[in-house]
Amino acid sequence: MAPPMSADSFLDALLGEGLTIVQVGAWRTHNRDHIGPWGPVHGVMIHHTATSGTADTVRLCRDGYQGLPGPLCHGVIAKDGRVHLVGYGRTNHAGPGDDDVLRAVIAETALPPDDEANTDGNPHFYGFECENLGDGRDPWPRVQLEAIERAAAAVCRRHGWGAPSVIGHLEWQPGKIDPRGFTMSSMRARIAERLA
């Protein structure tokens, strides 16, 4: 059972992995902690935003929308590879998912099919939203993929986790497709190589 990093430790971990960080407003205290606990944390979840345009994407992920208040993640990874920190603590990114998947993430074993939505993931995952339309045609620039790799590795390194602690939203919640345009197995391979 891992307690979350402090916001400053999170920032230090990202910077230590060589990322360019944009701090958006009072991100350290912008959260949904009044809804429920933040932690224990067990992994990192990767999403695509289904949006275009960095400024609008960051604003949406910080503020949310009707029916789903922000923040919608901890960091937004833009096409240019910069990571915009929009919140810290419990955020509305993971939603309900499969308890068998959570157990596999904790054990760092092969993921089972996500065929249930019986467990709230928001307390348990760091979340990165990645700017992409998610239509399978919008490109993933090399610098953005590298930033995803570095951001996930930064969190894993700080917690002593391996690459199996990093999952995509599509591996957590039935019906989700994100991230679309690269495979999570290929991303985990990159993260494992970086951590090694």
UniProtKB/TrEMBL annotation:
All copies of the N-acetylmuramoyl-L-alanine amidase domain together span 27-180
Q: Which CDD domains match?
A: PGRP (cd06583)
What InterPro entries does the annotation carry? Amidase/PGRP_sf, Amidase_domain
Q: Where is the signal peptide?
A: none
Record GO biological process? peptidoglycan catabolic process
Q: Which Pfam families match?
A: Amidase_2
Q: Which SMART domains match?
A: Ami_2 (SM00644)
Origin superkingdom: Bacteria
Q: What are the recorded GO MF terms, alphabetically?
A: N-acetylmuramoyl-L-alanine amidase activity
**What are the transmembrane regions?**
none
Q: What is this protein called?
A: N-acetylmuramoyl-L-alanine amidase
